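pasting input
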Amino acid sequence: MTDFFRRYSRDKVGVFFGVLLLLLYGVALTAQWITPADPMAVNLREVFSPPSAKHWLGTDQFGRDILSRVILATQVTVKVTSAACLFAVLTGVPIGMFVGYRGGWIEQLTMRATDMLLIFPIIMLAIVIVVVSGPTETGVIVALGMAQAPQFVRITRGVTLSVKEELYVEAAIAAGSGWLHILARHIWPNISTPIIVQATLTLPVFVLNASALSYLGLGVQPPTPEWGQMLNEAKDHLINAPYLIVGPAAALVVFVLSANLVGDAVKETLNPKLKKRK
Amino acid sequence: MTRLIVGRLLFMVPAAFLLVSFLFALFHLIPGDPAVMLAGDNAPRSVVESIRQAYGFDQPLHVQYGRYIAKVAQGDLGISNYTRDPVVNSVIPRIINTAQLAFLSMLFAMVVSLLLGCVSAMYWNRPLDKFVTVVSLLGICTPVFVTGLLGIYFFSIYLGWLPISGMSSWRHFVLPVITLGSFQAAVLTRMVRSCMVDALGKDYITTARAKGAPEFLVVFKHALRNALLPIVTLFGLGLGHTLGGSVVTETIFNWPGLGRLMVNSILTRDLPITQGAIFFFAMIFILVNLLVDLVYAWVDPRIRYD
């Protein structure tokens, strides 16, 4: 692990955006205490005030401070996407491990089904699921998680297939262990690293899709701020208050950019061969 | 080849059946009583009951399921809760609009990514390549609704050159096509570049250079032809993603396409329209996937999927 950090620290871009990403997570965790104003407080005397010393990013149609809303939206995004990622892992990984280890018709059937689901873009699957799960925080988490789960099923099955041929698995079978024991004690510890790495790598995808859902009005509902939904509201006031799009757009792009670059840096640190192609 | 096509077309039958079953389930999975949903929240009980009988919601589930399948098989997807028009009539024209948008965006993305990707690979590791790499990375990280809003602000409001919404002239196409296309172009440029860097490192490129072929020909003839196979695969995947991205793009520019129809129907709880839009979207994705498979088999005769 220390070796990993030592090699990672040589990648200057990776370090810079890693720090930036940590900062954004810091903002998300402490959002309640660091907002300069109440993000929900309506103030009709200060509707559409342009950026100023008091309101760095201006105020919206209800006179709410945009900077404070962007900060709170960071927390909402981090919460929703982390939970969705966890949901996808918790549903996709056990299924992938089980069918990969068991094989047979159940594996065939599951893989056919995932192949079929993988034809559809994630945002489409998420929209369809949100129709049922509802546009609430939990509903969005379930929709994004379920939409991404087939990818995890496929990845997990792939690594499980190679690990189950190992001698220690054979030894465990010979010793009379049950399949649940083998999956939990012998297979999972040996496939957990690539899967956790994969999960962190897909984080930007979760962020993009979560904000797209809320841009469409199918995500977290107002008055809770979310970047995509703030941009959707800003669109109606583009003529008289174009500054409204600056904050949420910048936060969204910087977050996705940092997450992507950190993911690339992690991948390259773990597999230095990739670097050559760059 | 014929066997491949027939096999894949036959695969669509169970796929469509599963899809229709899913849509039926969707209707009953949604929280709330479907009869109340159709009648409205404040409708009197007698109206709700008569709707329940008229739509057959009082029948056992398997009877309702059989009726639904039979109706869809006859091309009847129900009527809209609001306009009272048959769903099929409002969905079909939208498909053409979405197809236009997605096709032009994909064309834009393919041309841009092939050019930028090749140029980038030609100037590998030099300032021009670095510049293209940074721009495409930024493109990947900028969602279509951010690009779209910036485009609307600069070109429609600030400069006043292009219309904001609608699709009545070629000028209406510019912003939506570039918005949707540039995201895809950014994704594809990175991949085309890496395919081309691979291809340019091969021995036959050294041979071509050694015999004195001009650099332009080396890149666009020798290398590109050999890198084309993975690139075609990527373009196939890109087409699906472009269709997915069209949902958001249509909402930004008020494009009268299938995606906006679907989103609006969800927001207004017009379930028959939602079902119809999902049905056609899914069939389009399955068809596109089939087409892409066929193109692979045509480009690379080694693949003939048995």
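fyi The mean pLDDT of chain B is 85.
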